[in-house]
């Protein structure tokens, strides 16, 4: 069996800022929040970012870019939780610029839907890439969330089916998969 201390001494790691950190330091300081993502010297965008902006007076969009994986999912969960307030604006999670979407991201969306439902606000997802649509479809979550291909297609509160009308007592996957509507972005997947 490997000794974690010996492994940490042999395995130097580098953070985004270029500082050397060891695996042991990560394990010992696991109660600290993850470091902020800074723009690397290469000028490329960070691996993960979320920008919140109002879509209307009753709807807020959280646009996610980069990768949603085991490392970034806790930050996304915290950022979405900050935006969900009792009887606050509906929440639209725009995943249109996400390049990688793991099961951890699916869990964040399920938790956010449950929190939005408990707060009495609507919740929907914007997705248009296979990297996001396939995991939603395979798990059946495309039938649980209202999924739109573009933010412009999300109706505002009171305009008909949209975030405000997507409310359930609990997040449950359907037993029998109902047919997808022809307007669903998932309908185009092979």
Explain what this protein looks like in three dimensions:
The protein has 190 residues and is an alpha/beta fold. The protein has a domain at 48-158: Transcription Regulator spoIIAA, CATH 3.30.750. The chain is 27% helix and 23% strand. Helix 3 packs parallel to helix 4 (103-119). The chain is globular, with a radius of gyration of 19 Å. The protein starts with a helix and ends in a 42-residue tail after the last strand. The model is unreliable at 1-39 and 164-178 (pLDDT under 50). This is Anti-sigma factor antagonist. Residues 58-141 form the STAS domain. It comes from Saccharothrix yanglingensis.
CATH superfamily of the domain at 48-158: STAS domain
CATH class category label of the domain at 48-158:
Alpha Beta
Strand content: 15-25%
**Overall pLDDT, averaged?**
74
Rg to the nearest angstrom?
Answer: 19 Å
Fill in the CATH topology of the domain at 48-158.
Answer: Transcription Regulator spoIIAA
Q: Span between N and C termini?
A: 45 Å
Identify low-pLDDT runs: 1-39, 164-178
The major β-sheet equals: 5 strands, mixed
Quaternary structure type: single chain
Number of strands: 7
The spatial strand order of the largest sheet comes to: 3-4-5-6-7
Q: H/E order of the elements?
A: HEEHEEHEHEHE
Helical segment count:
5
Helix proportion: 25-40%
- Please identify, by name, the CATH architecture of the domain at 48-158: 2-Layer Sandwich
């Amino acid at each position: 069996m490997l000794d974690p201390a010996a492994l940490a001494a042999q395995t130097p790691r580098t953070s985004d800022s270029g500082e050397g950190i060891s695996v042991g330091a990560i394990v010992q300081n696991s109660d600290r929040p993850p470091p902020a993502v800074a723009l690397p010297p290469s000028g490329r965008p960070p691996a993960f970012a979320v920008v919140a902006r109002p879509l209307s007076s009753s709807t807020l969009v959280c646009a996610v870019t980069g990768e949603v994986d085991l490392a970034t999912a806790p930050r996304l969960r915290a950022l979405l939780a900050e935006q969900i307030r009792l009887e606050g604006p509906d929440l639209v999670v725009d995943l249109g610029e996400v390049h990688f979407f793991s099961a951890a991201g699916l869990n964040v969306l399920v938790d956010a839907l449950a929190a939005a439902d408990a707060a009495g606000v609507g919740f929907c997802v914007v997705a248009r890439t296979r990297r996001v649509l396939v995991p939603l479809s395979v798990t059946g979550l495309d039938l649980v969330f209202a999924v739109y291909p573009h933010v412009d297609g999300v109706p505002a509160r009171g305009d008909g089916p949209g975030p405000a009308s997507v409310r359930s007592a609990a997040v449950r996957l359907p037993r029998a998969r109902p047919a997808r509507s022809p307007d669903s972005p998932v309908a185009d997947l092979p």
